[in-house]
Each structure stands twice: as structure tokens, then as C-alpha cells.
Amino acid sequence: MSSSCQFLLAGDSQHTQLVSIPLSTASSFRSLHQLKQAVAAKFNVVDPSKLSFSVDGTVSEDLVSLLKSHRPIIVLVNGHAVVDPPGPSGLPFIGSHTEVYPDHIGNHERLFQVYGSLFQTTIMGRTVYHTNDPEITGHVFKESAFFTKEINSAHPLYGVKSPHAGVFLTSTHTDIWKEAHKFMVPSMGPKAIDKHCRTVVDIVRSTFPVFDELERTKQAFNVYDLMLKLSSQIVGKLFIDADFGHFRSADAPVHITVKTIFRLLGLNKKVTSWGDWYTYLPFGDPKRLRDTWHEVGERVAAHIAEAKVRREDGDVPLQEAALKTENLTDFFIRAVDNKGNKLPAETRKPALIVAVTAGFVTTSALLSWLLYGLTSYGDSQARILQELVDSGMTEDTDLSDGKFLSQLSFLDKYVKETQRHHTTSFQPARTARMDLVLPNGMRLPKGAVVIPEIHHLHHNREVWDNPQRFDPDRWDTEKVKNRDRSSYIPFAMGPRMCIASNFVLREVKIILAQLVFRYEFIRYRETEPIEYDPMFQTIRPRNLYMKTRKRTTWPSPSS
Ligand code: HEM
């Protein structure tokens, strides 16, 4: 008689695995659930509940008869043998490059339709896995024994990986991430947000003369360019105490620091789209990427040296630092945790570069799509204005502390729907820590980089009704309210998600409320289809132009 239960993970013959669980251990299983957990642990199956057991071709849920089986018990995942993720076979050498670029959004959508909710692409020998499945996404972002943010050579951030930045560009299993994250989170906590938003309100007011000048001189403006100026003016002030001078006049140039960071991100997208080997080339774009990275470092260092830091007031406890410091540079220099530790000096500059970059590149794209929607989606602009009027807004209303904004339910739905339909981030990636089997029964090798494709999660037909329709009111429906948390993740999710999501949501609502209350936004060249820039780190409209008209009348409050 056998002294153990044998389990065979069904798969192709090359990957079939047999494991034994001694009967002394097996007899201690009290439920099928416990057995599934033990077997899942042996085969590295991410979700034990997806296992089923088959003996002699029949699936059985009877624990007692399963444990008595003298024959190997066949283990199925999601009801079938495990398989490798499918994907296009691609061309020699360049692989799937032409299947993905130049239109990665459209092509990924096509590939999801052809191959299902998980597929792989290989470009220049670098394989990446893409998913639009909320369940897989939830596991991928968890930071668990199975997945972590590890920036290996297949990872989209490989070209700008930084061992010292701590956040964003550094792998999770490093001491520096834990340290940097600990200091950065309170810098975007609730008290900090109230303070930051007072600066946001002032900077939005400083844009009014520019909008007025553009109207007086009958000029249309490129929406992304103007929103780039606005969002970088805000993070420049908040993080490195820099006045980029973007609103001194309508034609004030974009500050050289902002231009250099912008160039860095374009180059990174371009270079990493060609694979690991390309990043090492001593000439062309890879060299330009390295040089630009160096230049960004020097420019930000110069801002840090000039930023106001109240050294004379001494160190401040981390939890009070948001209120007692002048800006993020001051925060990083003077905040001390309860063990007396400070953010390591070598992390300050790279972490500030990340904060400034993450801060304006994403927000400028989101703001541009928010303005696009005002002029493209039905009565959105009129509804936002009506809500502001109904809530009693005047030119002097203080929007910074969030109380006024919290009444604006349509504005909230409008921002949510814009972040769903016009997702700006598309490549947060995580890496498999071991050979594993996903809940859908597909296996991934250790080191596999998985990208939950945010745009495609937000347009997954199994989750969203009519996903191509812009419909802010969908956020009132029970279906959307009860959705899987992982099906809507504009700021990613899990321990490595955006640290500034609450700030951003308040910031963009302040900007929208202040601008829509004062100006009517009118699309210019409205028949021209809007193109996004596929070779940029975020999804931004390239050719969106508008004009504004200063409001002289407002609607009456609704009865
Ligand atoms: C519309 C605005 C924004 C969007 C859509 C956005 C989105 C994201 C996403 C998707 C991630 C995850 C990246 C990944 O997993 O690789 C992320 C991380 C991050 N974001 Fe944002 N972000 C925005 C604004 C900001 C701002 C204003 C800041 C300023 C501090 C910021 C700071 C960060 C940092 C530091 C991380 C990395 C956290 C970590 O590594 O643990 N983001 N953001």
C-alpha cells in the first residue's frame, strides 16, 4: 500500500510535475480547501481555489476518496491542464515590434481579442506578458511570494532604473525603497494635501491673465503644452521650490528643467521599446538617454541648492514634517523618523527627480483629457458649471481644504470616468518571483514581467457595459459600485501604487472648478481626430487645441 498521495499537475509532457504528500500529513486535511492550499503551495499555484482534482478521468470533490486513491490525482487549474500564455510569433530578430507599435493601445486591444486576457509579446528577445484581467491584476500587484516590483532587463522602467531613487525606479526588495517610501507617504498625507492645495489654488489664479491674454489676442492653444506648464509650475513650487515662470505671459517658454525631463521620458519609451541590448549602444538615442538623465540630475541638483530650507529651525518629526517644512526638499532634509533616522542623503536628489517627473508628466496628460471631455462629451461642461453654481461657488470660494469640492458629485464622476476612458498610465509592471501558475491556468517562468494594461482593464467588456462610451453616470450604477477593485486602477494598486493619488484627485478638481467657473472652453479645429503620442511614457493628446471665452453670465441655480 502507498504511504503517500501523489499529485500530478496536468500540463504538456515537458512540464508535467509529480509531487507526493505523505499520508501522515494528508490525513490531517480536514477539508478540500485545506488540501487545495497544500497542493497549490507545492505547484506554486497563485490561487488555491482554482484547483480541481481528477481521478480516472472524473473530477472529484470528495476528500476521503481522493486521499484513498492509489493512482496519481490529476491537478487541474481553472478546470484544465496548465498551458503557456499565447501570443504572436513575430518576425525574426525584431519579434512582435510591428504587432505592437506604433499604435500600442489599438494593437494591444486587437491582441486581447485574438489571444484572450493574457498574452505575451517578445520584442528583440525581451518577453513581456500583458493582461486585462482584474483577477490576475489583483494578484500581480499584491507584492507577495509570487510577484514583486523588480526592475529586470525586460521591465519597461529598465532604461531609467535607479538604485537610489527609492520610489518608482527602484525594486521593492531593497532597503532604500522601504526608507524612501516611509518618508514620501506622509509628504502626501491628508495634512500635507490641505497645505499643497493652497499653493495649487494660487497657481491656478496666476494662469488667469494668460487665458485672458490668449482670448484678447484670439489665439488657440495646444492643451497639452499648457497643461504641462500648469502641472509643472505646481510640482516645481511644491517639491523643489522652483518658479518655472510659466505664466509670466502667454508665450513664456517651458522651463529648461521641464523640457529636459520631458525629453528623458520620450527617449526612455523609445529606447526601452527596442529591448535591453539597445540601451547599451554607445551612440544614438541610448546615448542621448544616458546624457539626458545626467543633465536632469544636474538641473534638479541646482534647484535643490536654491530651495528654501529652514535649517536654522532644526530637524522635525516625520509626522509633523508636512506642516513644518517649506517644500518637499526641506521635508527630505529635515524630517526624522521615530528612530532618529533621516532619508539617506544620496536618495534626496533621485527621489525629488521622481516626484517632480511623476508629478507633472501624468497630471498634465490627465488635465488635457479632462479639458478634452468638456468640449467633446455632450453637456459635461454645462453640468460641471451648473453644479458649481448650485453649490454656491463664487470667484472667492476657497477650494483648497476639500470641503467645497466634496459636495460636487458630478465633478467626481466626471474625473473618475475620464480616468477610466482616457487612462494616462499604461505600463506599471511586476515580476514573477518564481515559476508559477496564474488563476487562469497559465504558467509563467521566474522573472516574467507582467503588465496589467490599465487602459484595457478599464475597457474590459466583461466588467464595463459599453466601455467605449464616455458616461460619468455609470458611476451611480450598482454594477460599477460593486465592481472588482482591480478593474479600475488609474493609480495602480498595492504597496507600490501611486503615493499621491489623493492629492492628484483634489488638485485636478480644484483646477477644473476654478477654470470652468471662469472660462468656457471651446474646441478649436474640432473635426481633426485627436492623436495620442505612442512614443511617450504616458498617454497624452498631441494635437488638441482650444480657445477660451471668459464668462460674463452664469446659469441660475437649479430649482
Ligand atoms: C494623474 C496623475 C498621476 C497618475 C495617473 C499616477 C499614476 C501612478 C501609477 C500608475 C503608479 C505605479 C507605477 C508603477 O507601478 O510602476 C504611480 C507611482 C508613483 N507615483 Fe504617481 N501618478 C500621478 C501623479 C503623481 C504625483 C503628482 C506624484 C508626486 C509625488 C506621484 C508620485 C508617485 C510615486 C513616488 C510613485 C511610486 C511609488 C513607489 O514606488 O512605491 N504620482 N503613479
From TrEMBL:
It holds the Pfam family p450. Heme binds at residue 498. Keywords: Heme, Iron, Membrane, Metal-binding, Monooxygenase, Oxidoreductase, Transmembrane, Transmembrane helix. CDD domains: cytochrome_P450. GO terms for molecular function: heme binding; iron ion binding; monooxygenase activity; oxidoreductase activity, acting on paired donors, with incorporation or reduction of molecular oxygen. The keyword Metal-binding applies. It comes from the Eukaryota. SUPFAM superfamilies: Cytochrome P450. The keyword Cytoplasm does not apply. The chain crosses the membrane at residues 351-374. Its cofactor is heme. Belongs to the cytochrome P450 family. This is Cytochrome P450 monooxygenase. The lineage of its organism: Eukaryota, Fungi, Dikarya, Ascomycota, Pezizomycotina.
